[in-house]
Design a protein that fits this description.
Elements (H helix, E strand, L loop, with lengths): L22 H25 L3 H10 L2 H24 L9 H17 L6 H7 L3 H9 L2 H14 L11 H16 L19 H17 L5 H10 L6 H11 L6 H13 L9 H13 L7 H9 L7
Helix pairs in contact: 1-2, 1-3, 3-4, 4-6, 7-8, 8-9, 10-11, 12-13
């Protein structure tokens, strides 16, 4: 187990980061490939009297640690591929459901077809915690709504024949109108349900005219179709303009969160050790909220000159 490794077998160890989801896969892969050399090195340090390495060595030598490391090496690539779907700036809604279902199927297969080294892992996964966690994170109702938005607002996927448009749209139309065309009940039973976001009758009546109009623009994709609905057709089809706005703000992409984490790391450095959480959050929001193109420099200058003078 502690035999010397060749150069081709060595992979650099990576640090896991709490706000970098893909870093876990790289960290686990490094531990798995370097485990013999890592144990040997830590053992030499422990013999030399280093108490910290003794503690680490006691954690990574048991069978449970090795089994979990190899099990995670099988599981994390599946999760990495799923995470990559949501890290794109322009997430294709049509890919979400098949990717989630594919990930669930892959994790279920790993749960049911384990090797001898993963028996301990199998015991901890008999309740299907990975599969259930994905189902809880991506409930089928939400996946149906996302898919239905793509069906209705993505003209590039419409059938060529006008006669087939109604049959193509009807199931998705029922899902969308059933969800957004009725009030949402309050958690407080004594309170009345909120008003529906769209008028179900108008939305259903205008469905085919809207889809026909969008197809008439020629080759529109999801985001551009939503822009056309809001910008050009909003006064004519207000219910569908509302649906387009809802579809555009569904938080399916993790790209803004990733940018926020990167910005936070640039703000809160080791030299700024006294920065508190509230101040860092305000700085991050302020930095993300405006660009050079949208920032009102005149108002900022007026505000600055009106501030009370302070001693330097």
């Amino acid at each position: 187990m502690t035999a010397a490794l060749g150069d081709e077998d060595v992979k650099s160890l990576k640090q896991q980061c709490a706000v970098r989801w893909l870093s876990l896969h790289r960290a686990v892969e490094g531990i798995k490939l370097n485990w013999p050399a890592l144990v040997k090195e830590l053992h030499e340090e422990a013999v030399g009297g280093n108490p910290q390495t003794k503690g680490i060595l006691g954690q990574i030598q048991p069978y449970c640690f090795i089994a979990w490391t190899h099990a995670l090496a099988d599981v994390l690539p599946v999760m990495t591929k799923l995470n990559l779907v949501f890290q794109k700036e322009d997430v294709n809604l049509a890919t979400i459901r098949p990717m989630v279902h594919g990930s669930v199927a892959a994790l279920t297969q790993l749960r049911d077809s384990l090797g001898p080294e993963e028996e301990r892992f199998q015991a901890d996964c008999q309740n299907g915690m990975y599969r259930d966690a994905l189902h809880n994170r991506f409930p089928e109702e939400s996946l149906s709504i996302i898919t239905s938005f793509d069906v209705l607002l993505n003209p590039s996927q419409y059938p060529n024949a006008q006669s087939a448009l109604q049959i193509y749209a009807e199931p998705a139309l029922r899902t969308i109108i059933g969800h957004f065309g009725q009030g949402i009940a309050s958690e407080d039973d004594s309170a009345q349900a909120s008003a529906p976001l769209i008028d179900a009758t108008s939305a259903h009546r205008d469905a085919i005219p809207v889809m026909t109009a969008l197809r008439g623009y020629g080759g529109l994709h999801f985001l551009t179709a939503c822009e056309v609905l809001v910008r050009d057709l909003g006064n004519i089809y207000p219910e569908w303009a509302t649906l387009a706005k809802i579809a555009c703000v569904i938080p399916v992409s993790s790209a803004p969160a990733e940018r926020g984490f990167s910005l936070q790391n640039r703000i809160k450095t080791a030299q700024r050790s006294r920065l508190g959480e509230n101040k860092v959050t305000r700085m991050r929001i302020a930095s993300c909220g405006e660009t050079l193109r949208t920032f009102d420099f005149k108002s900022a200058a007026t505000h600055f000159t009106g501030l009370k003078k302070r001693r330097k």
